[in-house]
Amino acid sequence: MNQLTALILATLSTSTLASNTQWELLTDTQLNGVLDSSTSQLQTLTLTTYANQFNAVNNASPDASVIQGEFELPNTFELGSGVVQRIQFTIANEGKRVYFLGQGSAQQGYRGTWYGPNNDAGDFRLDTKSAEVSVPVNCAQILSENPEALSGVYTIDPDGAGAHAQFEAYCDMETDEGGWTLIGTYSKSEPGGKQYISDYSPQPDTTPTNPTATGLYQGSLGAFRDIREQVACDFASCRNAYQTAMSEAELDMVRYTWGYLDQQEKQKNTPLPDCRATYQVTGTAFTHCLINTDRNNTNVVGWQRDIHAGNHSCWLAHGVYRPTSLGSSRCSYLAQANGTRWGLLWAR
Length: 348
Prior knowledge:
- The chain is mainly β.
- It has three helices and 18 strands.
- This is Fibrinogen C-terminal domain-containing protein.
């Protein structure tokens, strides 16, 4: 009985067409009507059903045993309270055959007993296995799998099994071909500047319009390739900086600029990525995303030293020398942040 463990099945088919499905079977070595977890064993098999009959394959060792059985037809009969169905099957291995007889339903699972060739016996349970729900890694995956997906809040998990848990994020499914994940929000009411990106809450706001929470996703950016930073946002527009087809290291550098001490330290060895003021790849490329080379790292937080014509002083917040300044400035020369604009960071 040491080969019996878990069978997996999504549904039982009464069609005459063959159907491959999965089940979970749990067995023990004590025939007392109760499954004993200390002696129970699992095995994964794939079932092929033809009407009410089925064959099964042990996924761990497909050639080790022959498994055959059937479900009762018609599908139901009355037994006590409720409608149940009988099931019987055998497992033959190395010339020995084990018999299973039970009852239940596809929805509730099957329970019964097994008997072996050496006067051995035990209990078994046969259940459908719940399908694992796969959490998308980003908004681009959601849009790819459902081109009709609308902008809104979705659950994503960019780093999969990594340290950062899945979270709710706002997805922009319309702008610049859609599929953008909001990974950073800086509220217009947030004072001062952040020294390190770890100073942010790891949960960005879930609205891009006047966010009230300041947060920055802290996990791996390996699931993304494009970036869009927006500062000095109001209800009408934002100042934009774009870059596409980026490496994870380049994406990390853009995120590090949201902490002005992180930016100073990281920029010593890794230059800031180039950027464009428009999404179109034919737009002017700004080296290191600077309109000139006089970036003052202690005063400016953000990727831009405003690359937009007529202005060159955009930031999310001032550094520690002016901790009472709020939000993003209006992107005019020497303007102070005055708590009227907010900042956003998107990845795709």
